[in-house]
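Lecture 7 notes: from sequence to structure.
We start with the chain below.
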Amino acid sequence: MARRPIIAGNWKMNNNKIEAKELIDGILYGISSLDAEKMPEVIIAPTYTALWQAYDLIKNEPKIALSAQNVNPNPSGAYTGEVSLDMLADFKVKFVIIGHSERRQMFGETDEFINQKALAILNKGLIPIICCGETLEQREQGVTDAHLRTQITKAFEGISASDAKKSVIAYEPIWAIGTGKSCDAAEANRTIGEIRKVIKELYNEEVSDNIRILYGGSVKPSTIVEQMAQPEIDGGLIGGASLKADSFVDLIKGAM
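Predicted structure tokens for the same chain:
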């Protein structure tokens, strides 16, 4: 079945107020002439400090949705430095990225904590973008599929079929993130196909057919067309190439 592609830009810890405005203005200009019905779903994920400005700039632009890069699953409390879902709702955030390898590796986030976030996000009526991926060592040992199965199974624990169907998964081989190396399109397609099989086993064919699974890991305008030609790949979670308006717009066009 036809799944609407997604091109999501994860800004990570980049862009001050001026840079954020310049980037969003450039994206808005670049997509202004594109047919909204043919476009992928476009998502930008600024830093927390740029969320208000991003919301203000795109609030009347239906072609772009807003995502946060992370969230704490607790509604409030003594969690210094954290941000809640109610706070994100103030900015009409639609998506939240969770489980990114940088959060797992640098901040010790566990599969169980990521599951707590997913449940809280869905309970709030937002959509999680649940990241998964293997290290180079795991790939070389031939345990990629088993590792991803564990990550996905734990991330979706307690999530209903109806909520799973509208969730988004991002497969990001850790060895390809920010390295300039991109997983071969055919292998990325095979791996995402394995993730889709896990979803089918956890739920049913309808859920696995509907859930959108993105590829992330040094996605560039020069790779997007081949990646989007793969039947299992539903778009990209973009890092570095989302920080320049021209390259991000080229990625959007490449997914059309």
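Points to note: The longest strand covers residues 127-132. The longest helix spans residues 185-202.
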